[in-house]
Recover the amino acids of this structure.
């Protein structure tokens, strides 16, 4: 199974004091121990594409354990197969919106049905729920939003441009799992 894996970690963001030199992606020697091969990163915001014969649950546990041991704090991962990434792009309920203004919050579980109604700080944002995603259109831009809801702290968000690129990388490198 070729699986795009996303993680969100402030210690690996290039804009933090930790700096990109402390980021373990993509050259970490522990990838084979985590059951990963063909590891590629895409932009320094925690996007990985890799192949693995392990289940998504096994991959998630192995990555979370290894990164916590490396940086000393817990970091969550969200795992999606190449097909699931392509499905997320196709499911975009805002296809006519500027792609950089559409975010997809990836979650491990289905979002609560009241996610959109309990959101605070909502201005012009549009929210649509997916299977394990929350699609958000930010007409005024992501950087200006005050939008908050509980699911935001339980997942990782990427814009449609990034998701499209990750799906493309996964499709181009797809092959049999090791």
């Amino acid at each position: 199974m070729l699986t795009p894996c996303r993680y969100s970690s402030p210690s690996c963001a290039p804009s933090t004091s930790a700096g990109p030199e402390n980021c373990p992606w993509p050259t970490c020697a522990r990838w084979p121990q985590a059951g990963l091969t063909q590891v590629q990163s895409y932009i320094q915001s925690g996007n990985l594409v890799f192949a693995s014969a392990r289940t998504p649950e096994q991959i998630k546990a192995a990555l979370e354990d290894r990164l916590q041991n490396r940086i000393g704090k817990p970091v969550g991962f969200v795992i999606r197969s190449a097909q699931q990434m392509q499905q997320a792009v196709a499911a975009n309920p805002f296809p006519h919106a500027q792609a950089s203004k559409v975010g997809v919050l990836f979650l491990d579980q289905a979002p609560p049905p009241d996610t959109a109604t309990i959101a605070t700080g909502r201005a012009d944002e549009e929210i649509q729920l997916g299977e394990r995603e929350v699609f958000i259109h930010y007409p005024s831009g992501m950087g200006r939003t005050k939008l908050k809801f509980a699911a935001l702290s339980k997942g990782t968000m990427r814009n449609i441009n990034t998701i499209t690129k990750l799906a493309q990388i996964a499709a181009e490198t797809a092959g049999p799992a090791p």
